[in-house]
Request: fold
Amino acid sequence: MKITDIKCFPTNVGSGSQLIVKVETSNGIYGWGCSGLSGRELAVVGAIEHFRSLLVGKSPLHIGAIWQDLYRGQYFEGGRVLTAAISAIDIALHDIKAKALGVPVYDLLGGKQRDYIDCFASLRFRTFDDLMEKARILKKEGWKIFRLAPAEFEADSKGYFEPRESIVILADWLTKLRQEVGPEITIGIDYHHRLTAAETYSFMQRMPRGTIDFIEEPIRDESPEAYESLRKMIDVPFAIGEEFASKWQFLPYLERNITQYARIDVCNVGGITESMKVVAMAEAHYIDLMPHNPLGSICTAATIHVAAACTNFSWLEEVNTPAENMGTNDKAFYPVQPQLEGPRYKLPTEPGLGVEFNEELASKQEFKPVEIPRLHKKDGSYTNW
Reply:
């Protein structure tokens, strides 16, 4: 069996954009993969164009060797564009090999260690009433972990974001949310890099102890030293890593115990091959995975298999819940996909990833990249989204 072609499908699904990759082989078995570099899908397509000629004619079963070849096979190693491309290809190769052997992908990774994958609900809100209504729906439907994704800045049509104003508002809303849902619900918040270390400390000081159970990436992650200083200031667990594009980026955060949850993205970090190495590094430091999963069903499926095969797993992100639906798992595009049963996924049992993509539908679509919002402070300066 040899690789015969690699096809790219940049696609608009639901409210976002995705890059789906198909690896075809000489005996008719194919595999699906997905890139996680949202909003820059066409850059990843360019990288895959470079990789195609290197892979056609090779055995798809030599996954580890292919990973090393793609990563090391240029003078400028790594970077998010290249590792997003490698991720998509690597996931597709695991799909192929598992199908060829007639087993689920998790059986290639040592076998399953659990029967289902617990999820946390990504709860996006603009107003206090929006937050409370969605939280009540999720609690009623049996969801126990809420990861809050505040977008209160969208209530202002000008798109201003003032950190000091934001922390006052959100600290008040979160304190009232805790009172509403009670102590049994796990609450985290993703501040999406919008704060400084000082602003993060101020935010935490404005809420009673026990209001939130973790905080996700309040500051940018380029500097482990900055996060180390913040780690000394506050006593709430961190969740960091969704933008990391290699085990090397994870290394200081794991070795120095800066983060307590590894927000690994299988479609960005280097695929299933690299994910399992991060899993082992995290396990050695008693750090659990809390995978990033904002994309479609291929990302979900790949992450389910990684989570099934590791011992140090907490919760998988889910953006399509009873409270809101981003449409990233649209059945028209994914006729076969993992199915939620309440706040969890049962493990797939069919060979491969357990997902299919409608390439005919995607081929008919005119792709439009989805840009992130541009946020500014009131003085006109640019800030993070």
User: Anything to note?
Assistant: The chain is about 35% helix and 20% strand.
